[in-house]
Amino acid sequence: MIEFKNITKVFKDNKRDVKALNDVSLKVEEGSIYGVIGYSGAGKSTLVRMANLLEKPTTGQVLFEGKDLTKLSSGKLNEVRRQMGMIFQSFNLLKTGTVYENIALPLKLTGVPSKEIKQRVHKYIEIVGLQDKLKAYPAQLSGGQKQRVAIARALAHEPKVLLCDEATSALDPDTTESILKLLSKINKELGITILLITHEMNVVQKICHEVAVMEMGEVIEQGSVIDVFSKPQTQTAQRFIQSLFNDAIPGDLLKKLKGTGKIASLSFIGESAGDPALAMVTKKFDVFPSILGGNITDLKERPFGRLIVHLDGSDEEAQKAIDFLKDSGVIVENYEKGNLTDAN
Amino acid sequence: MLTSVSEFIDNWGAEIWVSFLDTLIMVGISLTISVIIGLPLGVLLTLTGPGKALENRVIYQALNAIINILRSIPFIILLFFILPFTKFVVGTTIGVKGVIVPLVVFTAPYIARLMESSLLEVNRGIIEAYEAMGIKTRHIIWHVLIREARPSIVLGLTIATIGLIGATAMAGLVGAGGLGDLAYRYGHLRYQADIMYVTVIILIILVQAVQTIGNRVSAKLKKD
Lengths: 344, 224
Ligand SMILES: Nc1ncnc2c1ncn2[C@@H]1O[C@H](COP(=O)(O)OP(=O)(O)O)[C@@H](O)[C@H]1O
Ligand SMILES: [Mg+2]
Description:
The complex is a heterodimer of chains A (344) and B (224).
Chain A: E1 2-13, E2 16-28, E3 33-38, H1 44-51, E4 59-64, E5 67-68, H2 74-81, E6 84-88, H3 99-109, H4 114-127, H5 143-155, E7 161-165, H6 173-189, E8 193-198, H7 201-207, E9 210-215, E10 218-224, H8 225-230, H9 235-245, H10 251-257, E11 262-269, H11 274-284, E12 288-299, E13 302-312, H12 315-327, E14 331-336, E15 339-342
Parallel strand pairs in A: 3-8, 3-9, 6-7, 7-8
Antiparallel strand pairs in A: 1-2, 1-4, 4-5, 9-10, 11-13, 11-14, 12-13, 14-15
Chain B: H1 2-48, H2 57-72, H3 75-81, H4 83-90, H5 95-120, H6 124-132, H7 137-170, H8 179-188, H9 193-221
Bound molecules: adenosine-5'-diphosphate and magnesium ion.
């Protein structure tokens, strides 16, 4: 639906060149929720703003339903933009307008007949659950409510795509949760494709199907959320996943255990049982597993668990145990100072 | 005392009333023309500035220079300095008609600056949100930029109006009429202090009223 092809973006900032994006290629499939995650300054905002050409690529192409947006006249571009809603970290509502006016004005300016404007405002304010706030001004709303108004404003154009630039970053965890639920509902029930960027892994974890990890203007890892979460390839991706579990093992303990078998991280998604397999290990091999840490969280409504296990025994037996675990569908990696390396 | 007050009103009431109306007319007309010129210039300054939607160094720098030059000339000098221009535009250099031109030349650049600073206060994000919705630039200027800046624009216009009232009073020097003219002719040239005091008090009340109304309207437009 949206495709970025070899996008490079250079900002000229006081004669100094800043390369915000370097040869980025991504494809957002129709109906999916695509998350782009990265630390501050990675180039995420620049990328999402390129989807509707708020930012023009220095080189490369932006395709929307196969059309190259960089080739369109400004009138045609405006038509395409109306098919893409956008919401922001700072909500960007008219301070001087009521909730009703905030949703209705853009519709009026894009030529929607006035009878239909009224219907649409009521329809979409109901979807975001703020029917009783139509007469309120933004200053009278909480952050979460403002974001709901912004979402209703975007939906009222009945777009095919919703672009979200750190839409939950200014919100507290509970409000973030409710906005994410709303986005997920919009995706499922209205069939709107979502491209969102964030620096919070739990946002990706909760609602995204696909994820790309960005660093210094480049996409360093991308794939389905399940794949990237269960087998992160880069340190940055691992650090983001680590942030969900908070299961770093104290260095002292690691030192003490060194040379007594292996420390492994076992990840399991869904029903692929980590626990029974671990119990089998004790019986089949000459190792004593002890659990150093672990956690279970939700990944797209399936349990995603991780255990940090010390396999006490000879290296040989420990390796056999690891191979066995792998065969039973558990994802196994060596655990070293919080970083994961392939367990071979 | 009472008799002297009624005597004063009998003697001067009509003349003061006419001068007061002249002042209002001069302020009203020059303010209207100045807004018609100054507001678009303010918008142009805002949009052609560095890093803005219609960035254009030539237009921006030229406008900047012209506005700065006009704004550095004191009104009393401007009044005489542009006499030929005034004559060219309205065919006369005296009376209410003759003073409108210098008042506009004085006020329009000031309003352009005030508008620029009001418009620059508008959050860049809201403009971007409207660009993202595929809305035309001219609609964004009117329905977003100017609308959101309204409370601040009203305060700016209040300041400009008060400046204009002051300048109008000085315009008495070219025989334009109005309260300034009255105070100058009778108060200064003929040493009739009571006329001077009354005029000053009326000007003070006028300025207070304008400021109060401006503050109220701005507060009403402001919704946060
Ligand atoms: N308009 C701009 N002018 C100059 N540099 C910019 C501009 N926008 C972004 N950058 C630079 O590009 C890089 C990426 O920025 P951004 O896309 O905002 O990152 P993120 O959203 O991931 O935090 C940063 O180094 C930033 O300073
Ligand atoms: Mg950003």
